[in-house]
Amino acid sequence: xxxxxxxxxxxxxxxxxxxxxxxxxxxxxxxxxxxxxxxxxxxxxxxxxxxxxxxxxxxxxxxxxxxxxxxxxxxxxxxxxxxxxxxxxxxxxxxxxxxxxxxxxxxxxxxxxxxxxxxxxxxxxxxxxxxxxxxxxxxxxxxxxxxxxxxxxxxxxxxxxxxxxxxxxxxxxxxxxxxxxxxxxxxxxxxxxxxxxxxxxxxxxxxxxx
Length: 210
Ligand code: MN
Known about the structure:
With 210 residues, the chain is mainly alpha-helical. The chain folds into two domains: 25-84, Fe,Mn superoxide dismutase (SOD) domain (Helix Hairpins), CATH 1.10.287; 97-207, minor pseudopilin epsh fold. It has helices spanning 25-54, 62-84, 97-107, 110-123, 165-172, 176-183, 189-200; strands at 128-135, 138-145, 156-162. It has a three-stranded antiparallel sheet. Strand 1 and strand 2 (138-145) form a beta hairpin. Helix 1 packs antiparallel against helix 2 (62-84). The radius of gyration is 18 Å and the shape is globular. Bound molecules: manganese (II) ion. Manganese (II) ion (MN) binds at residues 31, 35, 79, 162, 164, 166-167.
């Protein structure tokens, strides 16, 4: 039987203090080394139990493994996307003309997209994420509960924002809205554009700006 490949904590491409003052060094460090590491450990532990079950150890509760695997693996994957779509804050943090034109085409305007995404983030009940994803060339804002609920099948994430309390509470206390509004300064639009090109551009000129 093929051994199941384990996951590992990705290194950040910036320092823990790089996102200040929007996200403090303390929050980034805890978030990456404790929370994300916890999802990595949880994923690997569930994959290990799955291997045991397949090898014949039927004392392992398969239903519980699969439930926890979905939670932890999606937690790991969502955080990996999240770190990559942020960079040091910029006051006038605008995407390229291509991204703006694409957003305009689908959402009516960049402002409308930001409004939908911000409202999704501010309105998540309990713990979750706002996600801009694209499915069959249709970009959609999704509100993901926990890490794994309410996804649209086949939708590829382009931009994600963690609104679990651990992502902002030490910096913003109960003011999640302030955190979401400040997040726009951090968005690494180059990463978003790269993800658009990877998932949505065919061989024609459809991504050359319209
Ligand atoms: Mn998180």
